[in-house]
Amino acid sequence: xxxxxxxxxxxxxxxxxxxxxxxxxxxxxxxxxxxxxxxxxxxxxxxxxxxxxxxxxxxxxxxxxxxxxxxxxxxxxxxxxxxxxxxxxxxxxxxxxxxxxxxxxxxxxxxxxxxxxxxxxxxxxxxxxxxxxxxxxxxxxxxxxxxxxxxxxxxxxxxxxxxxxxxxxxxxxxxxxxxxxxxxxxxxxxxxxxxxxxxxxxxxxxxxxxxxxxxxxxxxxxxxxxxxxxxxxxxxxxxxxxxxxxxxxxxxxxxxxxxxxxxxxxxxxxxxxxxxxxxxxxxxxxxxxxxxxxxxxxxxxxxxxxxxxxxxxxxxxxxxxxxxxxxxxxxxxxxxxxxxxxxxxxxxxxxxxxxxxxxxxxxxxxxxxxxxxxxxxxxxxxxxxxxxxxxxxxxxxxxxxxxxxxxxxxxxxxxxxxxxxxxxxxxxxxxxxxxxxxxxxxxxxxxxxxxxxxxxxxxxxxxxxxxxxxxxxxxxxxxxxxxxxxxxxxxxxxxxxxxxxxxxxxxxxxxxxxxxxxxxxxxxxxxxxxxxxxxxxxxxxxxxxxxxxxxxxxxxxxxxxxxxxxxxxxxxxxxxxxxxxxxxxxxxxxxxxxxxxxxxxxxxxxxxxxxxxxxxxxxxxxxxxxxxxxxxxxxxxxxxxxx
Length: 643
Fold this sequence. Notes:
Blueprint (H helix, E strand, L loop, with lengths): L7 H7 L13 E7 L9 E8 L9 E2 L2 E2 L5 E5 L6 E6 L3 E2 L2 E2 L2 E2 L4 E8 L15 H11 L3 H15 L5 E7 L4 E8 L7 E7 L5 E4 L16 E3 L3 H7 L14 H5 L4 H22 L1 H10 L1 H4 L26 H7 L34 E3 L5 E3 L9 E9 L5 H4 E7 L8 E4 L39 H10 L6 H33 L9 H36 L5 E3 L22 E3 L5 H7 L3 H7 L8 H15 L14
Antiparallel strand pairs: 1-2, 1-14, 2-18, 3-8, 4-7, 5-6, 8-9, 10-11, 11-12, 12-13, 13-15, 16-17, 18-19, 19-20, 21-22
Helix pairs in contact: 1-12, 2-3, 6-7, 11-13, 12-13
């Protein structure tokens, strides 16, 4: 308890938050794992961007339940939303909200795919990767047990997906499990799981990152017994090669151009920034060392390290929730990949210097040549994202906190969601669910989905805000959004710290999980807190959308006018009857005007005649005409100074 109540907690949460919330990712995902020794408060931190253009971003709820004998559960494929089969249900299942359970364990994933012949989709296997995550959360408290359960389920019921990188934190440890099915060769899957060393961090993004691994360290590395021999069986590893030299990624997910450019480049972006924060020279050295590799131009120059440790002689990593939010909002800014067209021309950035590109990632010109769009950590098609922390010193119901938001991780206000809450905040809930078991009652969720919008749906409101940050006014709106989001996020962080401190103070003995009454009371208080803060944040964020929309309405930049509005019954001097905002014709920047003026025949059609053939009088009239066509005057009208 004393560890939690230290006065430094608020400071730790705020470090790096100011100006970093827009530091600047199923289509693809990005994950960040932080070991206790690398976090500022000794928690395990896990950040997840669930990227998909077709998923409706909502928070699911699996209530803690006692199941009768012989109970079963349905398995539905998370990606394709099709029925796969049934398996026996456990006698007892834990409360799960989002991607966290009531005991402080949090899980997620990124898809690496791997060899096409090992894609187990449609081979008769039942267990898909989404169900594996939520079943593990419902049945286990520790990552090691979750890994063992996933293995047991796929061996017994078969695997129904392709290559997956599973992330897990439980307060004491952080683990990566990379798994791939056996396709039509055999039932089941092969896998390797490694614990993130204390003091280190790990990121992964749609490319298997496990290469060689210690096969004699069961406390830190566990793997399926046939992970090497299965590769030999299908011709992916020589029969006479030593087991110790086996490279998981080389055998099951060799790095390709897209794996490097669109996957590993995101890891590179996170690692270089984190190193640079600790040691600027080390960050620059890392950036340059692996640049050709992540560009996809030199796939043989050497892989990046799986785990990132602090530079030798530097201070240890000390990441806060705010730091993780910042890293998960990166968009390759100020690198060779920078999309924004600021330091070099880039027509794809548009006049607003957007860091985003519409899909597909790889496209062809009319001659058939292929080109690429960059894939950044923060991306427009994110379904939901969160930055979580698991704190083993807290009562179980509030041990795991997910700072959760729909949509783009660079442009989203995140709300607190504890793993032990028993109701989902209304605007974030879903009456259909990511999977059927996660659905809430229709009366407890807005009527909306990935196609049908609702003004009551957080997913749609957050998307409205984010989409203003793309396109022709991207830079302006992004800066304005930063000013709005920073104070709101800091306020939510402050409130969670105060709430947790109050809970611990009131329930000193509640860490004892056998105290059912106190455990239930804490869960209810946490639920009420999340409902209230979620509701408040929803309406504030909806108002932010209206403010940002008004800022750039119709291509203007609209702000508060200088003349006040007259008050009914008051003076009529120095004011106007109706509100007159300042409507600035900011147009485009100089570089974009130059581009518009240099596009061949189109520029000739746009050219205005220089000089004046009819002298000063013609010029005077032209100037006045231009002003009046926009309801402007050369000299501003002066209000009556006396009645």
